[in-house]
Amino acid sequence: MQNGTSSDFYDGIRSASGAYKYYCNGQWLETSCGKTLNNQNPCTNQTAYTMQACTQGEVNQIFAAAKAAQKAWARTPLCKRAEALHRVAQLMREHAQPIADCMVKEIAKPSKDALSEVVRSADLVAYTAEEGVRALGENRLLTSDSFPGNTRNKLCMVAKVPLGVVLCIPPFNYPVNLAVSKIAPALMAGNAVVLKPPTQGAIAGVHLTQLFHKAGLPAGLMNLVTGKGSEIGDFLTQHPSVNCISFTGGSTGIAISKKASMVPLQMELGGKDVCIVCSDADLTLAAKHILKGGFSYSGQRCTAVKLVLADKKIADQLVSMLVPMVQGLKVGRPEDNADITPVISESSASFIEGLAQDAKQKGATFLTEYKREGNLIWPTLVDNVNPNMRIAWEEPFGPILPIIRVDGHEPAIQHCNASSLALQGCVFTQDINRAIEVSDAMETGTVQINAAPARGPDHFPFQGFRDSGIGSQGIKNSLEMMVKTKSTVINLPAPSYQMG
Q1: Which of 75, 142, 303, 475 has the CB geometry, 3.0–4.6 Å to 453, for a possible disulfide?
Q2: Domain assignment present for 38
Q3: pTM to 2 decimals?
């Protein structure tokens, strides 16, 4: 992996004023209206980067380019599509550092984690190329005589064909990994892509798009639009040229699903991931995973531990282990690889503070001091939470972790299943029978046994129940949902013999 980049590799992606351009039909362009949009450095609340604010007319041009390019790409052999993705993966490894640097500035992701995300994403792209060749290269042949009353005079060739144009909308917290987890399967399946990155994380998206450009993809196949959601958000998701929407984010996804036309939807919409700690759990292991699961990237992960449901028999011991571990987390700047960095925005920090104040007013015990400076919130462990508190149900997306004490695992399961958010959960126990019993009873998309919730590895199925999503992700699942089935029936002459 190369940590630098050639001086001319990113030439053309910025205007004379320094604003980053959008990408349409193989060209980096400035918006005709002259409007730009800023994103903020979460550490300073000052402008980090400026980008184009695309108009609806430019969105139309982007979709027209995507539709035109997709026709030829659909006829491109699978092996050639795979070669293109392998070129992208190699460029990601060679030019990982500039993309990581963007994430440090615009989403306050610690340096080492930002670089790791890019490298992991390169692996995802390469794996998708290999899996796509295998999974999409297998088609079926059906014969009519397998159905009662038919002779062998029809042959049905069942093929997997592209959907068309896929709109990819990743979130701020993983603007590279959750972008390529959508883009790579879409392209491998023969679709064109329109990428709408989050405003916070958009420049990482610009740099990522340049990798696809440099990899030599046909013009119009990969496109990037930036702009205000209030002006182009609904226009994008309801555009008649959209044939699939892959979205990761929060409640906005529910609004999109209600407004979108009859197109396939792949949506991951957040979670209130519970951690059930049974009376026989290995508490050293549980504490380690709760710490990492609850506080890595300041808790700004859909799969973060959002609520600990601890058996009363071991709750005191678990808490005594967690407190010094939480107090030992390094709080500071992402450039210094601090464990806890500022959350994404002032509004996010204020929302977290509202949850903390509500819990305090209703009698929760703060095991570590709640402290906030701007967007930086110190890691906070809250005990004796009860179901009347907002934090027992709402997703904070920040470094605050509530603990509810329960009488056994059954009330813990009941609380888990009563939540509208059901992405992942985890259970800690040394009894495999109990582990499977709890897992079977938890109505969530994934249950981790003796480990914190996690999205990866990226080829594992990844899905949420209830308000946590529609459809399933993971490389193979994404490839399967990025295609549709087409049948071609060959009608043969009727056989000369008579059926008995």
Answers
A1: 303
A2: yes
A3: 0.94
